[in-house]
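#struct-queue
[09:14] JT: dropping the first one here, sequence first, then the structure tokens:
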Amino acid sequence: MAALAIAPALSAQTPASAAAVIYRCTDMRGAVALQDDPCPKGQKQETREIAAFAPVAAPASAAPEAAALPAEPPRIEAGVASAVQQRPLFTPSSLWRCTTFDGASRLSERFDPNPRCVPLSVLGVDLSRAPPSAATLCRTVEDQCIELSGDAACAAWEERLAATESTLRLAFSDTQAKARAERDRARDVVQGDCKP
């Protein structure tokens, strides 16, 4: 059984307009095969007639294509910056600045809105006429977090480096390793990613 070729070969005697017959054979297990010979006995056979492919003529010469290429690369006009030149020279790791409902902000390396339940009295709700049980009521709040990138991220990393250096100076022996790791991480980003 000859396997089906993508383009049936044409002999010197076969005209370009000749048709080819394709046999679709399905065996007892449902496996399907396409071939250019009739199916074996016991298999379901379907046929399709397709036009034979005409031979593709080889290109006469590569010279015309070479001549079509521009002699010089395109010139960039004065005052027009390329897209590569407009990209920033640094790509610092992103930081998120998260701001609480009362205006305090913090930096985080991941999106962290810190959902929590804040007592209504802290949120400024007047509970003077409410029953005593209202003192335990709270409302879920989240910080507003925005992602910083580029120059804003570098400025934030420098801010974080200063804060971690201060934390390391005040750290006790049991927290020094963590504080040092955070300081080193911030210093690596500032010195490695934020320097052009």
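[09:21] JT: and here's the second one, same format:
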Amino acid sequence: MPFFLLFSSFSSAVTIEQLYWEPENPQPGDEITVYAKISGNISQVKYQYCIGEACFPGTMQKNGDVWQFVIPSSDVKEGKIDVNVTAIDGDGNKVYMEKEIEVKKSGSTPGFEMLAAMAAMGIILIKVKSGKRIR
């Protein structure tokens, strides 16, 4: 009988199997949905995300086979967002997982180097059209 009790306590242990988010590569102003795949005898799942020194705690909601919460678009700025998910079992035991979300602007804006190259091409084009020799 004691063996059975020992075995059942291990089978109900909480495990956070995966923590991921969508969009996978968020940009400033995106709403980010964070998902956690958790197994075991779960009584509650809490989260906290931090942007710099500001931290925002809450309780995740179960949606099918995953738990989830949303980081609102107003909080998503360029930089890093630290995410911590804590799963709590029926006995109050806790397990947690931390991840870092990197928020970057898209690479479509030309940099200073591109501006300088375009200016140089413009000067060359003007000289060629005016018939002046380029030395």
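[09:30] RK: nice, looked through the second one.
[09:31] RK: The first helix runs from residue 2 to 11.
[09:31] JT: good to know. The first strand starts at residue 15 and ends at 22.
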